[in-house]
Amino acid sequence: MTTTTVRDVSVFGDAMAYFEEAASLLNLELGIRALLTHPSRQIIFAIPFQRDNGSLEVYTGYRVQYNFARGPAKGGIRYHPGVTLDEVTALAFWMTWKCAVVDLPFGGAKGGVTCDPGNLSPGELERITRRYAAELVEVVGPDKDVPAPDVGTTPQIMAWFMDTYSMHMRTSVPGVVTGKPVEIGGSAGRVEATGRGVSLLAFEEMRHLGIAPGDARVVVQGFGNVGSVAAKMFAAGGCKVIGISDISGGYVNRNGIDVAGATAYAQEHHSLKGYRGGEHVSNEDLLEVECDVLVPAALEKVLTVENAERIRAKLIVEAANGPTTPEADHILQRKGTVIVPDIIGNAGGVIVSYFEWVQDRQGYFWRESEVNERLEDLLLTNFRRVREVALARKVPYRTAAYVVAIERVVRSMKMRGVYA
Ligand code: NAD
Fold first, then answer.
1. How far apart are the C-alpha atoms of 403 and 27, rounded to whole Å?
2. What mean pLDDT comes out for the span 311-326?
3. Has 110 been annotated as catalytic?
4. Residue nearest to ligand 1 atom 1, measured at CA
5. Maximum CA pair distance of the chain?
6. What are the residue ranges of CATH 3.40.50.10860 in the chain?
7. Ligand 1 midpoint to CA 289 (Å)
């Protein structure tokens, strides 16, 4: 009788498959490996809230604190109908490696509420956020766990979170969350940081591959905070952005999309729906457009075994978390596609979140140019370290990024010792 091993295809299963690939190169002790594959704490709770019409509804909230070895846990809050414990756990796991690969003094966490923010009024969003924050008062804080925005959450939502926590503490605690408006302790440059980081890495890798920005055709999937800023930076750097997309579909213009015009359109209409600056295609077709650089900046599992063979980009910079399944990753590696993986690809956001936390704690705020300079330095220094490991071990960037991150986390764990 033969047995087949079936891989866990949950989002956390995808995350684990990448971890295992790198961990196997490091000969980690079994105990350490077991610790790293178990979240420290998973919290699920009810969020009762009142709709504007007076009726009472109950949503589900989550916070997963994956690892604290290098410092307080750090990670965003997602408001989306697809939020599950599996997804939040995977995202918390990725945050652990993301903070370590860019050498921040943080562990990893993530949170979320299963809801559709597009169908909630500002008042309803505020009530959900305040209840979400109140449920977490004991376990978050500048020295415990520091949330931030993610899909479906905004600086305003961070402001309500900070205010609720501060009310409970009876003192103002700006450092409990990052991604706040600058007026109340946010950092200059935070809103643009993730998209800026994506483009910095893309330009760095294009230099390495010998692709001149003026010759580069770029496709960006997702036109929210990250995708729209990345598209703007690509256009500013001389690239031709030939495709963009959001939930309403893709828009392709081989002569170049007017990114500023598309951004203004999306802001006015809250979506690209009806945008006429490019031919309308499906989101699936957008990913398959021939280009030099592809930036998935929406959600998980968009590059899969179904479409990997048809992806024609030379370079993929993962702005979303987990956009490529492990099976698709193997196909793309075989085809020679260079991938800058999510854990460093979108780390610009958490780097400037770290700067925001530092500024809040010292009560002294930096100029935007200083923030951007420090972001570039930290991100590119660590990416070059990943490249060195990739070349030395003859492995793809993804495996090298995990190797660098796992080594750093394990070193901290061993220095602290395990309270067992
Ligand atoms: P956002 O909510 O601002 O934007 C998400 C975008 O994706 C929207 O344009 C939406 O229409 C689009 N989208 C949703 N479903 C889609 C689909 N099926 N096909 C195509 N487009 C779709 O979110 P964001 O903050 O820009 O985050 C995008 C990704 O980047 C997420 O994976 C997030 O975890 C990751 N990320 C964000 C940050 C940050 O600082 N915001 C940091 C690190 C990673």
1. 11
2. 96
3. yes
4. 224
5. 68
6. 39-184
7. 20
pTM of the model: 0.95
pLDDT at 9 over 90: no
Distance of CA 329 to the CA centre of its chain: 18
User: Which residues in 301-345 belong to E strands, given as ranges?
Assistant: 313-317, 338-340
Ligand 1 centre distance from Cα of residue 362 (Å): 31
How far apart CA 244 and CA 240 sit, in angstroms, is 11
Q: What is the mean pLDDT of the chain?
A: 96
Q: Give me the pLDDT at residue 11, please.
A: 87
Look at residue 338 and give its three-state secondary structure. strand
Where are the CATH 3.40.50.720 domain residues in the chain? 193-345
> What CATH class does 193-345 carry?
alpha beta
How many CB atoms lie under 10 A from the CB of residue 252? 18
Q: Which atom of ligand 1 is nearest to the CA of 286?
A: 20
Q: Cβ contacts of residue 160 below 8 Å, gap of 6+?
A: 126, 129, 130, 133
What sign for the dihedral angle of Cα 301, 307, 309, 315? negative
What pLDDT score was predicted for residue 4? 52
Alpha carbon distance 249, 314 (integer Å):
23
In Å, how far from its chain's centre is CA 61?
A: 19
pLDDT in tens, 389-418: 999 999 999 999 999 999 999 999 999 999
Extract the tokens encoding 15.
Answer: 């995350």
pLDDT for residue 3 is more than 50: no
Residue with CA closest to ligand 1 atom 16? 247
Q: Which fold has domain 39-184?
A: Rossmann fold (3.40.50)
pLDDT digits (tens, 9 = 90+) for 110-144: 999 999 999 999 999 999 999 999 999 999 999 99
324, two tokens: 């490529």
Nearest-angstrom CA–CA distance, 297 and 221: 5
Say how many Å lie between the CA of residue 249 and the centre of ligand 1.
Answer: 14
β-sheet bridge partners, residue 146: 74
pLDDT digits (tens, 9 = 90+) for 82-108: 999 999 999 999 999 999 999 999 999
**Both structure tokens of 12:** 């956390």
From 110, 232, 240, 314, active-site residue: 110
